[in-house]
Amino acid sequence: MQLCVIGAGYVGLVTACCFAEMGNRVVCVERDPVRLARLARGDVPIYEPGLEALLRAHLASGQLSFSASMGEGVRNAAIAFIAVGTPTGEDGSADLSHVLAVADELGEALQQPCLVVDKSTVPVGTAERVGQRINRRLASRSMSFRVRIASNPEFLKEGSAVEDFMRPDRVILGCDDGQSTEQLRRLYAPFLRNHERVLCMGVRAAEFTKYAANAFLATRISFMNEMAGLCARLDVDIEDVRRGIGSDKRIGTHFIYAGCGYGGSCFPKDVRALIRSAELEGFEPGILRAVEARNALQKTLLFQSVREHFNGLLQGRIVAVWGLAFKPGTDDLREAPSLVLLDALLAAGAKVQACDPVACNGMQGRYAEALESGQLQLTESPYSATESADALVLVTEWKQFRQPDFARIRGLMRMPVIFDGRNIYDATELAGLGFLYRGIGRPLAG
Ligand code: NAD
Predict the structure, then answer these.
(1) Given pLDDT bands bounded at 50, 70 and 90, which one contains residue 427?
(2) Where are the domains of the chain?
(3) Which of 92, 47, 20, 129 minimizes the C-alpha distance to 357?
(4) Distance from the CA of 4 to the center of ligand 1, in angstroms?
(5) Which of 63, 135, 142, 317 has its CA 20 to 30 A from that of 160?
(6) Domain 2-201 is of which CATH architecture?
């Protein structure tokens, strides 16, 4: 099939590469010239395992190409996927300016009928708006055809995006006509050979499903963080509780980890957007508000613990920070808990020595001044980050941080204190090595 994917970010680029891998001919339209130039030479601008190999293979095979021009992108395309960002707008709603701009461009560029599929996460009713906008422009250009629209929300996870796209748990097809459903079913068939997990529903239900899924996962996290707060006061280890409830099949083990809050480009903005949708309908989203409030509080917890430990005196203290990305496996720093911690530590006068396997490049803009002055140092090795440190704070549970040589770290640090923002370390073992250990919702150790 001839396809167009608009937007070459985490979702668009993975979508384009994976459809090309299945033998489709894909043109990916990207408006950022720097990103475009890098992609055209086979250089992936984001960190995503397996993506570079696919990109290079299909640039070489000719199955995949990139363009700045919508006209070029949709020429002969049977399906156009919109995969541009929908960040939080001023009032908390999803900012649809990129999506609607794409609709206008499509309305100007299309020369033939095409199925337009929304892959971006957008509020209920957006696909309809997109379709109307495109068709209005087609009418004003005196074109005789109109587009059909569909919603195909994306469920890939950063860090395993290629794998998730290639082997999806399920594919949601939101279509209001049979022809679009059949077209998308055919396109996705090679990804679903061993199971038939295609869920067909209406466009609006598909749009809502994506928000409900993310809001539910965020709710599980905030619920566990609330339980952790109570555990800490009752001298109970939340990790025992997590194992205890996770073994119940009705609850399951996913997304019940207490920690320093959720971040990333989806959960925070999608919970906010859903709250705003509810407000616009005059419906009170009490649970969602609580989920968001708990998370905001949770993100400040590590700093509070560090500050308390040093009796509020952080000026001149050296704090090692392990992990900056919002989760392991990605370089994405959007709404990462690490940023809340770093901002507070730097404002309090601490020196920060931070290490992340892939996310350091993204620190240049926001922390240019601190990097310049040396108040913030980025290290390649996790051990270098702990040199002369008064505290070590684990923020992102990358595999490289899971089983370090604590005896070596004990020798490097000025004061042996570990704040474990993901509860990955064994409190008793660390106490035995002479560390003071502070987890989230765990009894004090050491
Ligand atoms: P992103 O910011 O990484 O990428 C968006 C890309 O679109 C950028 O490269 C941008 O330059 C480009 N773009 C914007 N306007 C354009 C235009 N008019 N023409 C061409 N290109 C344009 O965003 P993302 O993380 O890939 O997310 C995209 C959408 O998918 C969002 O709605 C998001 O909520 C949703 N989503 C994201 C994830 C994820 O894990 N990142 C997962 C599922 C769904």
Answers:
(1) very high
(2) 2-201, 243-438
(3) 47
(4) 14
(5) 63
(6) 3-Layer(aba) Sandwich (3.40)
